[in-house]
Recover the amino acids of this structure.
Protein backbone atom coordinates (compact mmCIF):
# COMPACT_ATOMS: atom_id res chain seq x y z
CA UNK A 1 0.00 0.00 0.00
CA UNK A 2 1.18 3.54 -0.77
CA UNK A 3 0.74 5.78 2.29
CA UNK A 4 1.47 9.45 2.94
CA UNK A 5 1.68 10.93 6.43
CA UNK A 6 1.06 14.68 6.69
CA UNK A 7 2.07 16.05 10.08
CA UNK A 8 3.50 19.05 11.88
CA UNK A 9 6.05 16.87 13.73
CA UNK A 10 8.26 13.85 13.16
CA UNK A 11 10.88 12.73 15.67
CA UNK A 12 13.71 13.41 15.95
CA UNK A 13 13.85 16.30 13.45
CA UNK A 14 10.72 18.13 14.65
CA UNK A 15 9.50 17.02 18.04
CA UNK A 16 7.51 18.85 20.69
CA UNK A 17 5.65 15.90 22.21
CA UNK A 18 4.38 12.42 21.54
CA UNK A 19 3.00 13.33 18.10
CA UNK A 20 6.52 13.34 16.66
CA UNK A 21 7.26 9.90 18.10
CA UNK A 22 4.02 8.49 16.71
CA UNK A 23 4.61 9.74 13.16
CA UNK A 24 8.13 8.29 13.09
CA UNK A 25 7.36 5.02 14.90
CA UNK A 26 4.19 4.21 12.97
CA UNK A 27 5.82 5.03 9.63
CA UNK A 28 8.72 2.76 10.43
CA UNK A 29 6.40 -0.13 11.38
CA UNK A 30 4.32 0.31 8.22
CA UNK A 31 7.49 0.20 6.12
CA UNK A 32 8.68 -2.96 7.89
CA UNK A 33 5.37 -4.53 6.85
CA UNK A 34 6.13 -3.84 3.19
CA UNK A 35 4.25 -0.59 2.58
CA UNK A 36 5.62 2.49 0.84
CA UNK A 37 5.45 5.42 3.28
CA UNK A 38 6.30 9.09 2.72
CA UNK A 39 6.08 11.88 5.28
CA UNK A 40 5.33 15.52 4.43
CA UNK A 41 6.49 18.16 6.95
CA UNK A 42 7.01 21.92 7.11
CA UNK A 43 10.64 22.94 6.56
CA UNK A 44 11.04 24.74 9.88
CA UNK A 45 14.25 26.68 10.37
CA UNK A 46 14.58 24.95 13.77
CA UNK A 47 14.62 21.39 12.40
CA UNK A 48 17.32 19.07 13.69
CA UNK A 49 19.15 19.19 10.38
CA UNK A 50 21.88 16.94 11.78
CA UNK A 51 19.27 14.14 11.83
CA UNK A 52 18.45 14.43 8.09
CA UNK A 53 20.55 12.43 5.63
CA UNK A 54 20.98 13.54 2.03
CA UNK A 55 18.76 16.64 2.15
CA UNK A 56 18.33 17.94 -1.39
CA UNK A 57 16.02 20.14 -3.43
CA UNK A 58 13.58 17.86 -5.22
CA UNK A 59 10.76 20.14 -6.50
CA UNK A 60 11.78 23.70 -7.24
CA UNK A 61 8.74 25.49 -8.59
CA UNK A 62 5.70 24.71 -6.48
CA UNK A 63 3.16 27.55 -6.67
CA UNK A 64 0.50 27.24 -3.98
CA UNK A 65 -2.74 29.22 -4.50
CA UNK A 66 -3.22 31.57 -1.54
CA UNK A 67 -5.75 34.40 -1.33
CA UNK A 68 -5.95 35.95 -4.81
CA UNK A 69 -2.44 34.94 -5.81
CA UNK A 70 0.05 32.17 -5.14
CA UNK A 71 3.08 31.59 -2.91
CA UNK A 72 6.22 30.10 -4.41
CA UNK A 73 7.58 27.05 -2.51
CA UNK A 74 10.53 24.72 -2.70
CA UNK A 75 10.30 21.08 -1.66
CA UNK A 76 13.26 19.23 -0.21
CA UNK A 77 13.71 15.49 0.26
CA UNK A 78 15.82 13.68 2.84
CA UNK A 79 15.96 10.55 4.97
CA UNK A 80 15.24 10.80 8.70
CA UNK A 81 16.72 7.63 10.17
CA UNK A 82 15.55 5.77 7.08
CA UNK A 83 12.15 7.45 6.73
CA UNK A 84 11.43 9.22 3.44
CA UNK A 85 10.55 12.83 4.24
CA UNK A 86 9.54 15.82 2.11
CA UNK A 87 9.98 19.30 3.60
CA UNK A 88 7.88 22.20 2.29
CA UNK A 89 9.51 25.64 2.31
CA UNK A 90 7.36 28.65 1.35
CA UNK A 91 9.13 31.78 0.09
CA UNK A 92 6.95 34.61 1.27
CA UNK A 93 6.98 37.74 3.38
CA UNK A 94 5.04 35.83 6.06
CA UNK A 95 8.05 33.57 6.85
CA UNK A 96 5.57 30.90 7.99
CA UNK A 97 8.18 28.38 9.17
CA UNK A 98 11.12 30.67 9.85
CA UNK A 99 10.24 31.61 13.43
CA UNK A 100 12.74 29.51 15.42
CA UNK A 101 9.78 27.72 17.02
CA UNK A 102 7.27 25.07 15.94
CA UNK A 103 4.12 26.44 17.57
CA UNK A 104 2.85 29.33 19.65
CA UNK A 105 2.65 32.07 17.02
CA UNK A 106 -0.27 34.49 16.65
CA UNK A 107 -0.93 33.22 13.12
CA UNK A 108 -0.60 29.46 13.71
CA UNK A 109 -3.99 29.00 12.04
CA UNK A 110 -2.68 30.56 8.81
CA UNK A 111 0.70 28.84 9.01
CA UNK A 112 -0.80 25.37 9.18
CA UNK A 113 -3.72 26.07 6.84
CA UNK A 114 -1.07 27.01 4.29
CA UNK A 115 0.86 23.83 5.07
CA UNK A 116 -2.27 21.72 4.39
CA UNK A 117 -2.85 23.50 1.08
CA UNK A 118 0.83 23.22 0.09
CA UNK A 119 0.99 19.51 0.94
CA UNK A 120 -1.98 18.70 -1.30
CA UNK A 121 -0.75 21.00 -4.07
CA UNK A 122 2.64 19.26 -3.97
CA UNK A 123 0.98 15.84 -4.19
CA UNK A 124 -1.17 16.99 -7.13
CA UNK A 125 1.69 18.65 -9.06
CA UNK A 126 4.11 15.75 -8.49
CA UNK A 127 1.56 13.08 -9.40
CA UNK A 128 1.35 11.42 -5.99
CA UNK A 129 -1.86 9.41 -5.56
CA UNK A 130 -1.51 7.42 -2.33
CA UNK A 131 -4.06 4.87 -1.19
CA UNK A 132 -4.36 6.62 2.17
CA UNK A 133 -3.35 10.02 3.51
CA UNK A 134 -2.87 9.86 7.28
CA UNK A 135 -2.98 13.26 8.96
CA UNK A 136 -2.66 14.31 12.59
CA UNK A 137 -4.25 16.81 15.00
CA UNK A 138 -5.69 20.25 14.28
CA UNK A 139 -2.66 21.42 12.29
CA UNK A 140 -3.66 19.08 9.44
CA UNK A 141 -7.44 19.15 9.98
CA UNK A 142 -7.94 21.03 6.69
CA UNK A 143 -6.34 18.24 4.63
CA UNK A 144 -9.50 16.12 4.22
CA UNK A 145 -11.61 19.28 3.77
CA UNK A 146 -9.40 20.55 0.95
CA UNK A 147 -9.09 17.08 -0.58
CA UNK A 148 -12.81 16.49 -0.87
CA UNK A 149 -13.90 20.07 -1.60
CA UNK A 150 -11.18 21.06 -4.08
CA UNK A 151 -8.49 18.52 -4.95
CA UNK A 152 -10.63 15.52 -5.84
CA UNK A 153 -12.19 17.70 -8.54
CA UNK A 154 -8.67 18.43 -9.83
CA UNK A 155 -7.91 14.72 -10.26
CA UNK A 156 -7.05 13.41 -6.77
CA UNK A 157 -9.94 10.95 -6.59
CA UNK A 158 -7.94 8.00 -5.30
CA UNK A 159 -6.74 8.87 -1.75
CA UNK A 160 -8.77 8.19 1.39
CA UNK A 161 -8.05 9.96 4.69
CA UNK A 162 -7.36 8.62 8.17
CA UNK A 163 -7.30 11.42 10.75
CA UNK A 164 -5.75 10.91 14.20
CA UNK A 165 -6.67 13.03 17.23
CA UNK A 166 -3.75 13.23 19.63
CA UNK A 167 -5.14 15.84 22.02
CA UNK A 168 -8.53 17.54 21.84
CA UNK A 169 -7.44 20.39 24.09
CA UNK A 170 -6.06 22.16 21.01
CA UNK A 171 -8.55 22.37 18.13
CA UNK A 172 -7.42 25.21 15.87
CA UNK A 173 -10.15 27.82 16.16
CA UNK A 174 -10.00 30.41 13.40
CA UNK A 175 -12.09 32.79 11.31
CA UNK A 176 -13.45 33.19 7.80
CA UNK A 177 -10.13 34.60 6.53
CA UNK A 178 -8.90 30.99 6.30
CA UNK A 179 -11.66 30.23 3.80
CA UNK A 180 -10.62 33.15 1.61
CA UNK A 181 -6.92 32.22 1.86
CA UNK A 182 -7.36 28.54 0.97
CA UNK A 183 -9.98 28.93 -1.76
CA UNK A 184 -12.81 27.40 0.28
CA UNK A 185 -14.90 30.40 -0.65
CA UNK A 186 -18.43 29.19 0.08
CA UNK A 187 -18.76 30.77 3.52
CA UNK A 188 -22.33 29.71 4.20
CA UNK A 189 -21.45 26.12 3.26
CA UNK A 190 -18.57 25.88 5.75
CA UNK A 191 -20.08 28.03 8.51
CA UNK A 192 -22.59 25.26 9.13
CA UNK A 193 -22.96 23.12 12.28
CA UNK A 194 -22.57 19.96 10.18
CA UNK A 195 -19.23 21.12 8.76
CA UNK A 196 -16.59 23.48 10.21
CA UNK A 197 -18.59 25.87 12.41
CA UNK A 198 -17.44 25.60 16.03
CA UNK A 199 -20.05 24.01 18.26
CA UNK A 200 -20.06 26.88 20.77
CA UNK A 201 -18.53 29.92 19.09
CA UNK A 202 -20.67 30.18 15.97
CA UNK A 203 -18.50 32.98 14.59
CA UNK A 204 -15.47 30.65 14.52
CA UNK A 205 -14.34 27.78 12.36
CA UNK A 206 -12.89 24.68 14.04
CA UNK A 207 -10.14 23.02 12.02
CA UNK A 208 -10.13 19.83 14.08
CA UNK A 209 -13.88 19.53 13.63
CA UNK A 210 -13.34 19.84 9.89
CA UNK A 211 -10.95 16.92 9.98
CA UNK A 212 -13.44 14.79 11.92
CA UNK A 213 -16.34 15.61 9.59
CA UNK A 214 -14.48 15.07 6.30
CA UNK A 215 -12.09 12.18 7.12
CA UNK A 216 -13.01 8.63 6.12
CA UNK A 217 -11.96 7.32 9.53
CA UNK A 218 -10.99 9.04 12.77
CA UNK A 219 -8.72 7.46 15.35
CA UNK A 220 -7.48 8.55 18.70
CA UNK A 221 -4.46 7.33 20.59
CA UNK A 222 -5.94 4.89 23.11
CA UNK A 223 -9.22 2.97 23.51
CA UNK A 224 -9.94 4.61 26.88
CA UNK A 225 -9.46 8.11 25.43
CA UNK A 226 -11.85 7.26 22.59
CA UNK A 227 -14.47 6.41 25.22
CA UNK A 228 -13.67 9.53 27.27
CA UNK A 229 -14.05 11.96 24.38
CA UNK A 230 -17.45 10.49 23.59
CA UNK A 231 -18.69 10.44 27.17
CA UNK A 232 -16.87 13.07 29.27
CA UNK A 233 -15.77 16.71 29.14
CA UNK A 234 -12.37 15.61 27.80
CA UNK A 235 -13.80 16.29 24.33
CA UNK A 236 -13.50 20.07 25.00
CA UNK A 237 -16.77 20.84 23.23
CA UNK A 238 -16.53 18.38 20.33
CA UNK A 239 -18.77 15.77 21.97
CA UNK A 240 -21.74 16.24 19.65
CA UNK A 241 -19.59 16.10 16.51
CA UNK A 242 -17.87 12.93 17.70
CA UNK A 243 -21.21 11.35 18.59
CA UNK A 244 -22.60 12.09 15.12
CA UNK A 245 -19.50 10.49 13.54
CA UNK A 246 -19.03 7.72 16.13
CA UNK A 247 -19.41 4.98 13.49
CA UNK A 248 -16.05 5.99 12.01
CA UNK A 249 -14.24 6.58 15.34
CA UNK A 250 -11.85 4.15 17.02
CA UNK A 251 -9.09 4.14 19.62
CA UNK A 252 -5.69 2.59 18.89
CA UNK A 253 -3.03 2.62 21.59
CA UNK A 254 0.21 4.26 20.47
CA UNK A 255 3.36 2.19 20.37
CA UNK A 256 6.89 2.76 21.61
CA UNK A 257 9.87 2.54 19.27
CA UNK A 258 12.00 -0.12 20.94
CA UNK A 259 14.87 0.69 18.59
CA UNK A 260 15.15 3.93 20.58
CA UNK A 261 13.69 3.02 23.98
CA UNK A 262 15.25 -0.27 25.01
CA UNK A 263 17.63 -0.68 27.98
CA UNK A 264 19.31 -3.69 26.31
CA UNK A 265 20.70 -1.59 23.44
CA UNK A 266 20.46 1.97 24.79
CA UNK A 267 23.69 3.78 23.90
CA UNK A 268 22.83 6.62 26.33
CA UNK A 269 23.20 4.33 29.37
CA UNK A 270 26.47 3.67 31.20
CA UNK A 271 25.34 0.06 31.62
CA UNK A 272 22.71 -1.69 29.47
CA UNK A 273 20.48 -4.23 31.21
CA UNK A 274 17.59 -6.59 30.55
CA UNK A 275 14.97 -8.78 32.19
CA UNK A 276 17.59 -11.42 32.87
CA UNK A 277 20.23 -8.98 34.09
CA UNK A 278 18.17 -6.54 36.11
CA UNK A 279 20.87 -5.92 38.72
CA UNK A 280 22.78 -3.87 36.14
CA UNK A 281 19.97 -1.29 36.39
CA UNK A 282 21.44 -0.19 39.73
CA UNK A 283 24.66 0.91 38.06
CA UNK A 284 22.52 3.40 36.16
CA UNK A 285 20.99 4.48 39.47
CA UNK A 286 24.48 5.18 40.76
CA UNK A 287 25.33 7.14 37.57
CA UNK A 288 22.11 9.18 37.91
CA UNK A 289 22.99 10.07 41.49
CA UNK A 290 26.45 11.18 40.42
CA UNK A 291 25.04 13.25 37.57
CA UNK A 292 22.60 15.09 39.86
CA UNK A 293 24.73 15.20 43.03
CA UNK A 294 22.37 13.02 45.05
CA UNK A 295 23.60 11.20 48.14
CA UNK A 296 24.28 7.48 47.91
CA UNK A 297 21.76 6.11 50.41
CA UNK A 298 19.41 3.14 50.79
CA UNK A 299 16.43 4.90 49.23
CA UNK A 300 14.40 4.51 46.04
CA UNK A 301 14.40 7.25 43.40
CA UNK A 302 11.01 8.55 42.23
CA UNK A 303 11.07 10.59 39.03
CA UNK A 304 8.93 12.76 36.79
CA UNK A 305 9.83 13.17 33.10
CA UNK A 306 7.95 15.38 30.67
CA UNK A 307 6.21 18.63 29.98
CA UNK A 308 5.12 20.71 32.95
CA UNK A 309 1.65 22.01 32.15
CA UNK A 310 -1.93 21.95 33.36
CA UNK A 311 -2.74 18.66 31.62
CA UNK A 312 0.12 16.84 33.33
CA UNK A 313 -1.10 17.58 36.86
CA UNK A 314 1.19 20.31 38.20
CA UNK A 315 -0.44 20.43 41.69
CA UNK A 316 -0.03 16.67 42.10
CA UNK A 317 3.56 16.68 40.81
CA UNK A 318 4.32 19.36 43.40
CA UNK A 319 2.59 17.46 46.19
CA UNK A 320 4.34 14.21 45.22
CA UNK A 321 7.72 15.96 45.41
CA UNK A 322 7.08 17.09 49.01
CA UNK A 323 5.54 13.75 50.00
CA UNK A 324 8.40 11.67 48.57
CA UNK A 325 11.09 13.68 50.37
CA UNK A 326 9.17 13.32 53.64
CA UNK A 327 8.75 9.56 53.24
CA UNK A 328 12.21 8.19 52.57
CA UNK A 329 12.72 8.59 48.84
CA UNK A 330 14.79 10.70 46.49
CA UNK A 331 13.06 12.74 43.80
CA UNK A 332 14.28 13.70 40.33
CA UNK A 333 12.40 15.88 37.85
CA UNK A 334 13.32 16.43 34.22
CA UNK A 335 11.09 18.79 32.28
CA UNK A 336 10.28 22.28 31.17
CA UNK A 337 7.12 24.35 30.95
CA UNK A 338 5.63 26.29 28.04
CA UNK A 339 3.73 28.32 30.64
CA UNK A 340 5.63 31.17 32.32
CA UNK A 341 3.73 30.94 35.61
CA UNK A 342 4.24 27.18 35.93
CA UNK A 343 7.90 27.57 34.96
CA UNK A 344 8.38 30.18 37.70
CA UNK A 345 6.67 27.87 40.21
CA UNK A 346 9.19 25.10 39.53
CA UNK A 347 12.14 27.51 39.59
CA UNK A 348 11.06 28.46 43.12
CA UNK A 349 10.89 24.77 44.06
CA UNK A 350 14.35 24.26 42.58
CA UNK A 351 15.74 27.06 44.75
CA UNK A 352 13.95 25.66 47.81
CA UNK A 353 15.47 22.20 47.38
CA UNK A 354 18.79 23.25 45.83
CA UNK A 355 20.86 22.00 48.76
CA UNK A 356 18.79 18.89 49.49
CA UNK A 357 20.92 15.77 48.84
CA UNK A 358 17.78 13.78 47.95
CA UNK A 359 16.31 16.08 45.30
CA UNK A 360 17.20 17.45 41.90
CA UNK A 361 15.01 19.45 39.49
CA UNK A 362 16.43 19.69 35.96
CA UNK A 363 14.29 22.39 34.36
CA UNK A 364 15.12 21.76 30.75
CA UNK A 365 14.37 18.96 28.38
CA UNK A 366 17.22 16.80 27.24
CA UNK A 367 16.05 13.60 25.55
CA UNK A 368 19.45 11.93 25.85
CA UNK A 369 19.46 12.60 29.61
CA UNK A 370 15.90 11.27 29.95
CA UNK A 371 17.20 7.80 29.06
CA UNK A 372 19.41 7.85 32.17
CA UNK A 373 16.53 9.05 34.37
CA UNK A 374 14.26 6.25 33.13
CA UNK A 375 17.00 3.72 33.78
CA UNK A 376 18.16 5.06 37.14
CA UNK A 377 14.83 5.56 38.91
CA UNK A 378 12.73 2.84 40.53
CA UNK A 379 9.39 4.65 40.15
CA UNK A 380 7.88 7.32 37.91
CA UNK A 381 4.80 9.46 38.55
CA UNK A 382 2.30 10.34 35.80
CA UNK A 383 -0.55 12.12 37.66
CA UNK A 384 -2.26 13.60 34.61
CA UNK A 385 -5.57 15.43 34.69
CA UNK A 386 -6.18 13.76 31.32
CA UNK A 387 -3.83 11.75 29.11
CA UNK A 388 -4.84 10.71 25.58
CA UNK A 389 -2.16 8.02 25.49
CA UNK A 390 1.08 8.82 27.27
CA UNK A 391 4.37 7.28 26.16
CA UNK A 392 6.13 7.99 29.47
CA UNK A 393 4.57 5.11 31.38
CA UNK A 394 5.15 2.64 28.54
CA UNK A 395 8.81 3.62 28.22
CA UNK A 396 9.19 3.37 32.01
CA UNK A 397 7.79 -0.18 32.01
CA UNK A 398 10.38 -1.25 29.44
CA UNK A 399 13.12 0.22 31.67
CA UNK A 400 11.88 -1.57 34.80
CA UNK A 401 10.68 1.67 36.38
CA UNK A 402 7.34 1.18 38.11
CA UNK A 403 4.68 3.73 37.04
CA UNK A 404 2.40 5.48 39.52
CA UNK A 405 -0.45 6.88 37.44
CA UNK A 406 -3.91 8.36 37.53
CA UNK A 407 -6.60 6.18 35.90
CA UNK A 408 -7.29 8.23 32.77
CA UNK A 409 -6.90 7.76 29.02
CA UNK A 410 -3.99 5.63 27.87
CA UNK A 411 -2.66 5.39 31.44
CA UNK A 412 -5.69 3.25 32.34
CA UNK A 413 -5.09 1.08 29.25
CA UNK A 414 -1.47 0.29 30.12
CA UNK A 415 -0.93 0.33 33.91
CA UNK A 416 -2.62 -2.23 36.15
CA UNK A 417 -2.58 -1.81 39.91
CA UNK A 418 -0.42 -4.12 42.03
CA UNK A 419 -3.12 -4.54 44.67
CA UNK A 420 -6.49 -3.97 43.05
CA UNK A 421 -6.33 -4.71 39.33
CA UNK A 422 -8.79 -7.22 37.94
CA UNK A 423 -5.92 -9.16 36.39
CA UNK A 424 -3.66 -12.06 37.35
CA UNK A 425 -0.66 -11.06 39.46
CA UNK A 426 1.85 -11.58 36.64
CA UNK A 427 0.03 -8.93 34.57
CA UNK A 428 0.04 -6.25 37.28
CA UNK A 429 2.73 -3.65 36.68
CA UNK A 430 2.24 -0.46 38.70
CA UNK A 431 0.12 1.65 41.03
CA UNK A 432 -3.06 3.45 40.02
CA UNK A 433 -5.22 6.09 41.70
CA UNK A 434 -8.55 7.53 40.59
CA UNK A 435 -9.17 10.85 42.32
CA UNK A 436 -7.36 13.93 41.03
CA UNK A 437 -6.32 15.21 44.47
CA UNK A 438 -3.52 14.98 47.03
CA UNK A 439 -5.15 12.07 48.84
CA UNK A 440 -5.31 10.10 45.61
CA UNK A 441 -1.64 10.35 44.73
CA UNK A 442 -0.61 9.88 48.36
CA UNK A 443 -2.47 6.57 48.50
CA UNK A 444 -0.58 5.25 45.49
CA UNK A 445 2.81 6.59 46.63
CA UNK A 446 2.29 5.14 50.11
CA UNK A 447 1.69 1.66 48.68
CA UNK A 448 4.57 1.88 46.20
CA UNK A 449 7.17 3.17 48.67
CA UNK A 450 5.95 0.75 51.33
CA UNK A 451 6.34 -2.21 48.98
CA UNK A 452 9.88 -1.14 48.02
CA UNK A 453 10.99 -1.04 51.68
CA UNK A 454 8.95 -3.88 53.23
CA UNK A 455 8.74 -6.45 50.43
CA UNK A 456 11.61 -5.87 48.00
CA UNK A 457 11.13 -9.26 46.35
CA UNK A 458 7.54 -8.34 45.43
CA UNK A 459 8.64 -4.95 44.15
CA UNK A 460 11.17 -6.73 41.94
CA UNK A 461 8.42 -9.02 40.62
CA UNK A 462 6.33 -5.96 39.76
CA UNK A 463 9.32 -4.49 37.92
CA UNK A 464 9.80 -7.68 35.91
CA UNK A 465 6.08 -7.88 35.12
CA UNK A 466 6.30 -4.44 33.50
CA UNK A 467 9.38 -5.34 31.47
CA UNK A 468 7.54 -8.33 29.98
CA UNK A 469 4.91 -6.12 28.33
CA UNK A 470 5.12 -5.50 24.58
CA UNK A 471 4.04 -1.95 23.76
CA UNK A 472 5.91 -1.90 20.45
CA UNK A 473 4.34 -0.66 17.21
CA UNK A 474 3.68 -4.26 16.15
CA UNK A 475 0.03 -4.44 17.27
CA UNK A 476 -1.02 -0.83 16.55
CA UNK A 477 0.68 -1.08 13.16
CA UNK A 478 -1.62 -3.94 12.21
CA UNK A 479 -4.67 -2.09 13.56
CA UNK A 480 -3.87 0.92 11.36
CA UNK A 481 -3.37 -1.30 8.31
CA UNK A 482 -6.81 -2.82 8.97
CA UNK A 483 -8.31 0.68 8.97
CA UNK A 484 -6.46 1.66 5.80
CA UNK A 485 -7.78 -1.47 4.04
CA UNK A 486 -11.29 -0.73 5.29
CA UNK A 487 -11.43 2.85 4.00
CA UNK A 488 -9.54 2.09 0.78
CA UNK A 489 -12.31 -0.27 -0.28
CA UNK A 490 -15.11 2.22 0.44
Amino acid sequence: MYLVQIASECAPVAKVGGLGDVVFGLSRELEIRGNSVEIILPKYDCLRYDQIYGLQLTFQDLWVPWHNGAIHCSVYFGFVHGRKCFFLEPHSEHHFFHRRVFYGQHDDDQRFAFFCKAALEFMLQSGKHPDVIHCHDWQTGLVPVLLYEIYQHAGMRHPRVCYTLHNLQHQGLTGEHILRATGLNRHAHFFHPDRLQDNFNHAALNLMKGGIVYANFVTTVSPRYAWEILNTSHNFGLGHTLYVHRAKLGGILNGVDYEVWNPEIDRHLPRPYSLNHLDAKYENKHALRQRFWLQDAYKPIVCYIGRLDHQKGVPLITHALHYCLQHGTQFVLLGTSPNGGIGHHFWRLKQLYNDNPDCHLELSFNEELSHLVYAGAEMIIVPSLFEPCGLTQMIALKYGTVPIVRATGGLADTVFDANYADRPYHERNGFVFNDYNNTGIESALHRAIGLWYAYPQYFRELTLNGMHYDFSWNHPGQHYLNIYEYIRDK
Notes: The chain has a mean pLDDT of 96. The domain at 275-468 is CATH 3.40.50.2000 (Rossmann fold). The two ends are 15 Å apart (CA to CA).
